[in-house]
Fold:
Amino acid sequence: MTLKDLGFNKSAQKLISLEREGMKVGRVIVEHKERYLIQTPENIYQAEITGKLRYSAESRADLPAVGDWVTFSVFDDNAAIIIEVMPRYSTLERQAVNKFGEKQIIATNVDIAFIMQAVDHDFNLNRLERYIAICKSSYIRPVIILSKTDLIGQEKVTAIIESIHKRISNVSVYPISNETYTGYEELKETITAGNTYCILGSSGVGKSSLANNLLNVPKLKVNAISNSTSKGKHTTTHRELMILPEGGVLIDTPGMRELGIAGDSDSIDRTFDQISILARNCKFKDCTHTEEPDCAVLEALESGGLDQSTYENYHKLKREQAHFSSTVAERRAKDKKLGKLYKRIKEEKDKRR
Ligand SMILES: Nc1nc2c(ncn2[C@@H]2O[C@H](COP(=O)(O)OP(=O)(O)OP(=O)(O)O)[C@@H](O)[C@H]2O)c(=O)[nH]1
Ligand SMILES: [Zn+2]
Structure:
């Protein structure tokens, strides 16, 4: 195995130097309560972080996450201490439920996300757009996978693909069936060594089935593994970062199951290409496309050149975004105010001495 097999590609090379004297470089494959498994081409290490790293971390985001490249040193046998988390070229995160609106990292250094929707009742263009927005704000390339094509006719599949292309540009769509393996050849051709992948989508769309099929895990074996882990055995078999047999790395963490919007508002604009192109012709540069005169977006909406649902989804995402960023901004402002207050109190004290 080489570092490339573990996903060390050009994007990583740009940020990460491997010249670390006396230290090892590896990739985090499991994170659980500040305990980690690190994989190198030769070995897997159980690791903790240095006290320095813990205390200098300003938030959870500064601690290692699955997908991170880290430097570490080894003391007896397989025990290791993580010294440094290397810079990330992409970060998949979600708005955590914690009170500060702090983002929670789901995985890092992911190149491509397979956004999965089933062609039966799960199919929903707004939700697709939402996932694409998440990917773009995370610097991850989205690819759409339509699953369960065995449940409907080819004509309907074609119609769904057309409806996607009408709303969403520059994203490839792969129709597959996990039952009949239809579409797998085309999909596998896009998977290349050195890249890291993840699968996003609602519950029940077939994410585990896809992962198992890509990993060539026989169905029976999946059950055997989950049985042994539920008995509380030490779970070295449990990995959240796996190497695909034909090359490429797949990350599957529990956090991927539920995602919200947590990104910059630009990413939404980038997703809604059509709207941003129209917006260039709005009279006002800061047009919100809601009530302004000479708004090119509203005009397109009226003339039918812009889909009503695209327009509504755009505003919905913007609102969520605004809500999210205001909580973070408010917190920052509060911290700043507190900081000033502490400083003033200290100054007053010093004066009195
Ligand atoms: N007919 C059909 N059924 C499928 C296909 N893919 C998955 N299923 C079935 O759909 C159900 C859910 O599949 P999973 O792979 O567990 O879906 P998931 O997205 O991992 O679901 P969560 O674990 O809840 O997130 C299972 O009963 C699968 O057998 C498919 O392509 N065609
Ligand atoms: Zn406008």
Remarks:
- The chain has three domains: 10-85, 91-257, 265-352.
- The pocket of zinc ion (ligand 2) is lined by residues 279, 282, 287, 289, 292, 295-297 (CB under 6 Å).
